[in-house]
Amino acid sequence: MGDETRLAQVIDNLISNATKFSPEGEEVTISVGSIDGGIGVRDKDKAPGIPEDFRKQLFDRFTQVDSSTTKKAPGTGLGPAICKHIIDGHNGIIDVESEEGNGSAFYFVLPDAAPPPQPPANDTKAA
Questions:
Q1: What's the CA gap between 35 and 112, in Å, rounded?
Q2: How far apart are CA 72 and CA 65, in angstroms?
């Protein structure tokens, strides 16, 4: 399907961020399945949500919703950018759905990497 180490890094980052920004004790839901002819992975959290005007730049390097010196969760703002780079390298898409005060759902979709079925070999020879 792709570079397993890098895809595991994406999943780890998404889960790490979901748990880091969710209130203590809240669940993070992970789902995996077929979608649009590919494989999709989605995480849903109960974090505060991401302002709509910020979502366009969320996958840029060194970007954080709260970049103040008093922020509650440490980080560099590189995780989402690295995830996007990895998913782009697998010809996939990564995005987020979020509503302020109601959590976020990060997801990525990779194209199905299974080779198409091959027709049976034709063993007859023309005379």
A1: 9
A2: 11
15 falls in which pLDDT band (50, 70, 90)? very high
DSSP H/E element including 17 = helix 4-21
Cα–Cα distance for residue pair 11/14, rounded to 1 Å: 5
Residue 67 has pLDDT above 90, yes or no: no
Mean pLDDT across the stretch 10-32?
91
With CA atoms as reference, report the closest residue to 100 among 59, 47, 24: 47
Q: Which pLDDT score is estimated for 119?
A: 61
State the DSSP string of 20-80. Answer: HHSPTT---EEEEEEETTEEEEEEE--S----GGGGGGTTSTT--S--STT-SS---S-HH
Beta carbons of 83 and 19 less than 8 angstroms apart: no
| 119 or 16, which is more confident | 16
Token pair 């920004």 is found at 21
